[in-house]
Specification:
Shape: globular
Largest sheet: 5 strands, antiparallel
Oligomer: single chain
Length: about 130
């Protein structure tokens, strides 16, 4: 069976989440707590101190402290407890990050991310106005 080697397998669209290749965007597996719902790539996750499960940054975790820890690397349905991939290090655009509705990232949140190896930068939106052939 022959297959053309010039067949397009997939198309990647740049979403602007990652700003730079230094430090390297390294991923690891996390457990997301029950009830977080449908989460999008770029959601900032906070680790609960007692059980180590991840919650959306800005979520109130009953009698526990949750500290900003990583950034979700893929879309995931977390209506029940689920495993997912998240960035433990990397350089990301602040304006592309997602947190709980009506929550604003604080300086302490940004410092907590920096402590684990995640750098944040303000980045401008870029729109390609050139037409493709």
């Amino acid at each position: 069976m022959a297959k053309a080697l010039n067949t397009e397998v997939a198309k990647f669209e740049y979403d602007g989440l990652i700003v730079d290749s230094n430090p390297i965007a390294d991923v690891f597996a996390v457990t997301i707590a029950t009830g977080m719902g449908a989460l999008k790539r770029g959601t900032v996750l906070a680790r609960a101190a007692k059980d180590g499960k991840m919650h959306i940054l800005g979520t109130t975790v009953a009698s526990d402290t949750a500290t900003a820890n990583c950034i979700l690397a893929e879309d995931v349905d977390a209506t029940s407890e689920t495993a997912a991939l998240a960035y433990r290090t990397g350089h990301f655009a602040t304006n592309k990050l997602i947190v709980k509705d009506e929550y604003t990232m604080t300086a302490a949140d940004k410092e907590a991310l920096r402590d684990v190896g995640i750098l944040l930068s303000d980045a401008m939106e870029y729109e390609n106005t050139e037409e493709e052939d």
